[in-house]
Amino acid sequence: MTIDPDTGAIAFPSGFAADAGLTQSAFRAGPAFAHARVDEAGVRPWIHYRLPGGELDGHPLLIDVLFHAELLVTVTVAADLYPPGPKDWSNYSLDVEAATKDFHDQLLTRLLGEPTESPARPRGHFSESQATLARPHTWRLPWGTVWSGHDAKGGGTYLALTYGNRRDEAGRRPNA
Question: What is the model's pLDDT at position 88?
């Protein structure tokens, strides 16, 4: 996996690539769409597509691309460090989530350098081995931000590329 720190272009082992110029129409016309699952849980014109990103260091990558109409807003990535088997709450582990967060942080530091923002103290109550879950990291770049963290409410650990302030801009647009 690569992220261009100058442009925000991201490429995955699966061959899927995205950048700030990717439109929903181009995504749907490309080869990655054949492997995508549409998640229309939100309110149109917001739409998520979930797809495999290949493997990195032996771990499957799961990708979520979020569009507002034609505009790519966010690319979210999660490495799956869980052992083979069912992916449900019965197998959920904060230790695995902490290992996932460390994996994401090391990857992003290798690709983008040190984060530009990290809390001085952990937020929340985690064991020492899980303290990384309480420390989100942000990289502010010319094209947008990259965030690595843990969603304590939803239980997920992921990294997200957000292009500019498109989420705010899209929220101000009328739903088309």
Answer: 87
